């Protein structure tokens, strides 16, 4: 099975960023504050500590590199975020500190980030390098506080019959941990499928974990390691580190964490676009027998791809309630509500930014959210979401061989061409829906979707075919055009 994760932000302030009184942000950034509140600068100091801010610049003043100072002019103090997995100082760290001196900010706190992912001796050496760097500067007497990064893991099933579930989860991932059991031959059918899915979802930051080495003799573990290297050769994971671990005995987990820090940078996020959240879970949080005045609205869980959500926002969920009219034509009624709570694990948020898993509390009838009924839907601001498609035209690419399916002579079965009127499964974001092949021409096809999907032109989708009672990955495609549904407002 594969474990993947997204970077998560900490508790934001009213300007949408991390609250300096709580844990510091995993991705850094620099922003002003709302009127009447203290403002802090969150300076990013290297790609490992997050070279992205809401202004997409990563600079101290919340703008692009080379942009004139703006945000710092209204700041009262500064938080300087330094990534523990990079040498100190980085060039931009020196620039940020110089800018702090220019703007006469003498209230400074230095945050040594990602110490939980470092070996103790390495963290201590890095701490000393920070003290040496700030000696004799305006930050010379500033406190240096070690903090931890926050990662969110999306556990995807490894069983081949749950392939569609895995593809849905992959839609919100920034990177992947591919877990391979050392006491089984490599590759297993689902391992091949997961690696293919990783390529389809454009995940290029991958770490491979060779698990259960405690159950193997040293020579067997070495042979299995070589088989993994042979398996990933020539794939998107060809240069990925392979780390032997024992999850049961927690052997080498520190090496896995260190590899996460050194291999996977904080993704670049766009805070300026309209918010777009993919829903991968939904809940009714009310307990049986709750009083009427204690009832709460449904909760949608997922990951924000871009933009910022905040408490009180009017939101829309598409496609929403899907029905058919008297003529049998599909009809979509989007769900409208307002955000009443935002949560990330145990943290209550005022703002939610891209990365990590977010729970959005709403005023929606909880029966509509019960048992993951909103999975595959898209959440965003009212009137700002992509179109809803009932038919799509795709440019597709089929795999040469079926992953995990062999013929009588032991060879991998070939992938048959798409046939007109064939029904396949399409994964669009976290949406899994059936699709009838209406027309085919060369590497292009027209699909009639069983359930409408909210998506964008150019979106990459996965294609699966039912073989031997299981859905098997057969290829991927890009959406080129489609037939849209006009949402009902009734």
UniProtKB/TrEMBL annotation:
Residues 297-379 form the Translation elongation factor EFTu-like domain. It comes from the Eukaryota. Residues 150-265 form the Tr-type G domain. One of its GO terms (molecular function) is tRNA binding. Keywords: GTP-binding, Hydrolase, Initiation factor, Nucleotide-binding, Protein biosynthesis. GO terms for cellular component: cytosol; eukaryotic translation initiation factor 2 complex. Residues 1-25 have a biased composition (Polar residues). The keyword NAD does not apply. InterPro entries: EFTu-like_2, eIF2G, eIF2g_C, eIF2g_dom_2, P-loop_NTPase, T_Tr_GTP-bd_dom, Transl_B-barrel_sf, Transl_elong_EF1A/Init_IF2_C. Its EC number is 3.6.5.3. One of its GO terms (biological process) is formation of translation preinitiation complex. The keyword Zinc does not apply. CDD domains: eIF2_gamma_II, eIF2_gamma_III. This is protein-synthesizing GTPase. It comes from Verticillium longisporum (Verticillium dahliae var. longisporum).
């Amino acid at each position: 099975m594969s474990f993947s994760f997204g970077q998560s932000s900490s508790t934001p302030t009213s300007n949408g960023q991390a609250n300096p009184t709580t844990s510091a942000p995993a991705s850094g950034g620099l922003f002003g504050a709302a009127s009447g509140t203290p403002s802090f600068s969150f300076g990013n100091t290297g790609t490992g500590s997050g070279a992205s801010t809401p202004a997409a610049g990563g600079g101290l003043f919340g703008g692009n590199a080379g942009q004139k100072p703006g945000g710092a002019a209204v700041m009262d103090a500064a938080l300087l975020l330094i990534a523990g997995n990079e040498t100190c100082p980085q060039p931009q760290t020196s620039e940020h500190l110089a800018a702090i001196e220019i703007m006469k900010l003498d209230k400074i706190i230095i945050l040594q980030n990602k110490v939980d992912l470092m070996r103790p001796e390495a963290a201590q050496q890095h701490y000393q390098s920070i003290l040496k760097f700030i000696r004799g500067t305006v930050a010379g007497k500033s406190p240096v506080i070690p903090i931890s990064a926050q990662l969110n893991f999306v556990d995807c099933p490894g069983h081949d019959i749950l392939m569609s579930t895995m593809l849905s989860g992959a839609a919100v991932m920034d990177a992947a941990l591919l877990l391979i059991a050392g006491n089984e031959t490599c590759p297993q059918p689902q391992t091949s499928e997961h690696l293919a899915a990783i390529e389809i979802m454009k995940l290029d930051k991958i770490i491979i974990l060779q698990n259960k080495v405690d159950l193997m003799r040293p020579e067997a573990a070495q042979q299995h390691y070589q088989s993994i290297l042979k398996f990933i050769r020539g794939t998107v994971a060809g240069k990925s580190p392979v780390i032997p671990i024992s999850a049961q005995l927690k052997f080498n987990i520190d090496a896995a964490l260190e590899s996460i820090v050194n291999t996977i940078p904080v993704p670049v996020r766009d805070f300026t676009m309209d918010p777009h959240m993919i829903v991968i879970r939904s809940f009714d949080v009310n307990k049986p027998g709750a009083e009427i005045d204690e009832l709460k609205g449904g909760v949608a869980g997922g990951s924000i791809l871009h933009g910022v959500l905040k408490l009180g926002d009017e939101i829309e969920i598409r496609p929403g309630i899907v029905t058919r009219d008297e003529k049998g034509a599909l009809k979509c009624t989007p769900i409208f509500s307002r955000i009443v709570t935002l949560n990330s694990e145990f943290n209550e948020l005022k703002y939610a930014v891209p990365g990590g898993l977010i729970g959005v509390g709403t005023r929606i009838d909880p029966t509509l959210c019960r048992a993951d009924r909103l999975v595959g839907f898209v959440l965003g601001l009212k009137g700002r979401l992509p179109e809803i498609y009932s038919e799509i035209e795709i440019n597709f690419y089929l795999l040469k061989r079926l992953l995990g399916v062999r013929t009588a002579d032991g060879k991998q079965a070939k992938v048959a061409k798409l046939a007109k009127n064939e029904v396949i499964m399409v994964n669009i974001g976290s949406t899994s829906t059936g699709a009838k092949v209406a027309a085919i021409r060369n590497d292009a096809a027209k699909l009639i979707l069983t359930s409408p999907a909210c998506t964008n032109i150019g979106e990459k989708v996965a294609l699966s075919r039912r073989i031997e009672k299981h859905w098997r990955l057969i290829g991927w495609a890009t959406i080129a055009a489609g037939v849209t549904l006009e949402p009902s407002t009734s």
